[in-house]
Design goal:
The protein is of the alpha/beta class. It is built from five helices and eight strands.
Amino acid sequence: MSNGIYVVVEQRSGKVQNVGLELIGEATRLKADLKDDVYAVLLGSGIEGEVDKLYHYGADKVILVDHPYLKEYVTEPYTKAVTEIIKKFDPEIMLFGASSIGRDVAPRVASRVRTGLVADTTGLRMAKTEEEYAKEAAMGCADPTRALLMTRPA
């Protein structure tokens, strides 16, 4: 059973950054195949005014973590907050931007929750053909119809 597509939306100086909005758009494309909700994860302090923007860009639900320690990006508080969200909600897919924040926090979170990480992808899509399903099944994928395929430049 799936637990949604989560997007970590970055904010700087209390304003949502475009990289997160773009990722919400990408998540809504995946949603069409997975039939899952898109969750925007927004961390900061005094940023509740930015929540409506996330719904406007396609988020079905927003998880807002508002705490003074999260006002500006600091590695450890952000890592801890995102890790706790993953432990509580168990998302199927989690997307981070390829920004300085995303590149800092994503590998730390992946390590703490003991999962894989693919960085710097240029394309995301769900497996759709019998050949793709067969390849995913051969690699041990429990449900190849829900396999996320990523394009990454080599």
